[in-house]
Amino acid sequence: MKKLSAKQQLRLEKSGLLLALMLPLARIILDYFHDSLGANPVEAMTHRTGDAALQILLLSLAVTPIHRYFRFRRAILFRRLLGLTAFFYALIHFSIYLVFDQELSFGDTFADVAKRPYITMGFSSLVIMLPLAITSTDKMIKRLGGPQWRRLHKAVYAAAVLAVIHYWWLVKADLTAPTLYAVCLIVLLSTRFAWWARQRNNKPVIKQPG
Amino acid sequence: MLIKIIDPTAAREHEVTPQALYLDRRRLMASTARSMIAAGVSGVSGLMSSMAFAAKAYEKVPKGSPFDTNEALTPFKDVTSYNNFYEFGTDKGDPKINSGSLKPRPWKITVDGEVEKPTSFDIDDFIKTQKLEERIYRLRCVEAWSMVIPWIGFPLADVIKAARPTRKAKFVAFTTLLDPVQMPGQKSKILDWPYTEGLRLDEASHPLAFLAVGLYGDMLPNQSGAPLRLVVPWKYGFKSIKSIVKITFTSTQPKTTWNIMAPDEYGFYSNVNPNVDHPRWSQGKERRIGELFKRKTLMFNGYDQVASLYTGLDLKKNF
Ligand code: HEM
Known about the structure:
The complex is a heterodimer of chains A (210) and B (319).
Chain A: H1 6-21, H2 23-33, H3 41-69, H4 79-101, H5 106-115, H6 117-134, H7 138-144, H8 146-153, H9 155-170, H10 176-201
Helix pairs in contact in A: 2-3, 3-4, 3-9, 3-10, 4-6, 5-6, 6-9, 9-10
Chain B: H1 19-39, H2 44-53, H3 76-79, H4 94-98, E1 108-113, E2 119-122, H5 123-128, E3 133-140, E4 145-155, H6 156-163, E5 171-176, E6 196-200, H7 201-204, E7 210-215, E8 218-219, E9 229-231, E10 244-250, H8 257-261, E11 285-288, E12 295-296
Parallel strand pairs in B: 1-10, 4-11
Antiparallel strand pairs in B: 1-2, 3-4, 4-7, 5-6, 5-10, 7-8, 7-9, 11-12
Bound molecules: protoporphyrin IX containing FE.
């Protein structure tokens, strides 16, 4: 077999990852057509897309620590794809709510966003992710310049925190799942604090991607 | 308020055999007939009908209550696979999967508190003393979804009368079984087990208040609250306590599980009320199971006849 160039190899790996990341969506579509989304398909779709969005968002936040602490340098090449996929699922999640819960009434939607704290949190999370997604093309990264782009994309921490609060606040009694997500997020964020503290103590610093 | 006048001569939704069942029956008849003919056995029709109908415990219970709604029934599959019954897990699919450990027979029910003579019964002896009937009710969950379910059971008022409450009795409290082996969800402290619920005595005596032992013409499946559950159709679903072991008459307002858990979110009354939102979500609309879009929620879930129970009561404060 012919040996792949580094570029082809990366493209192949990214396609594989994308395929894997589309599995939750594929399952929703398959289950829809097999009539196996359960008695309340809209709720099932909302839950599954919300879960996928949050899980992939947390995965994207795991890339930098993996890169830093396990010296797995290639990981960083997949971060953007993970972030964009998280946004993609969040967008579907919101669209389901917009169509089936609010029947495309923007007035009702904004009233709901204003009134319900858990919706406010989810909405803020999505709104924060929007400029991050838009500035994720090669062209935009070049235009903003590395430092500027990294500073902007620090907002992803806020998006993740708001998404976990969103989940926390919508639960009726069983906080197991949101607690798990919160613990993951706290671990992921603490690795940053640990890194920053270390950087401050042993200057000079080697620049590392945010 | 919209009141539907039912044409008494029209065949109502529940009197018409659901299509799926009809088709199943046709298929069964066809295949049975084929094998019968092959074996040269006569008397096919008698055998067929016994095969098709023998399994259901309450098939012959009288139907057509004046309290019935004529809306389309929620399919049996959805009624029995989408449940809030935290004793078996917090996902709506959990109760169907995990409730096999519940043993609804033998089952003892205790009636005590402010009654002339506290007693306890075996469930089957208890059912024998009651006149069973079918009631097709809407069920509105506090989570803004709803179903239409054909229950089998008897009016709670009949049980209250038989219990002969004393003059001090003002409330009725209900308790679910406490047994973490049969109800594995009770191993985690999500709620303050055992689940308890309560009604004012006049609410409990309203002809709509119902004790169910079955649904869709058959015994209650475990996940639906076997062997005995409450059905209070003008209140949010969580008031309709499942797998009851104790009915207690009290002089003071009993503690109720969700009210203990979050008093600002779940009141003692918990009447269905589109004008009083849950602090975290709207109660103005609901999704009928089987439909994609939401419909408007009706005051008292459309059971206006209970309004007189609450005259003079501020339903915003007493939510
Ligand atoms: C405009 C933005 C959003 C709206 C309107 C929204 C709305 C909702 C609704 C209605 C639910 C279901 C609540 C229930 O069943 O009681 C939900 C659940 C959820 N949402 Fe969102 N959401 C938004 C944004 C987000 C974002 C950005 C994320 C993650 C990155 C997210 C993650 C979740 C998760 C994890 C759940 C719980 C799923 C489960 O129970 O399994 N949501 N959201």
